[in-house]
Design goal:
With about 90 residues, the protein is mainly alpha-helical. The chain has one domain. About 80% of the residues lie in helices and about 0% in strands. The longest helix is centred in the C-terminal third of the chain and has 26 residues. The radius of gyration is 14 Å and the shape is globular.
């Protein structure tokens, strides 16, 4: 069962893109272990791509980690795009 945030995530981050980027950046800062840190950074990158935030590379301080998790972020972003296409053409039910 989805909560309200998960169900309305697209409209929420489109209506407040700067707040969404701040939320993702905050999640990166509070992670405790390396695996979660890399996952949060990849979600930060793909989230910035979703809303069209172009300063994601300049704003993030840990450039080495950005480059390491870039393939994971690209996979997440393409998965999100594919899901939206399938939903738009009603080929996928949620």
């Amino acid at each position: 069962m989805e909560d309200g945030y998960s169900k309305n995530a697209i409209s929420l981050y489109k209506s407040n893109p700067k707040g969404y980027v701040y939320y993702l950046n905050q999640r990166v800062r509070i992670t405790q272990n390396t695996k979660q840190y890399h996952l949060s950074v990849s979600q930060y990158i793909s989230g910035c791509w979703r809303i069209g935030y172009s300063n994601w590379f300049k704003d993030f301080t840990d450039k080495k980690v950005l480059l390491v998790v870039l393939p994971m972020a690209l996979k997440n972003h393409l998965k999100f795009k594919l899901k939206n296409i399938l939903l738009r053409y009603k080929l996928l039910d949620i």
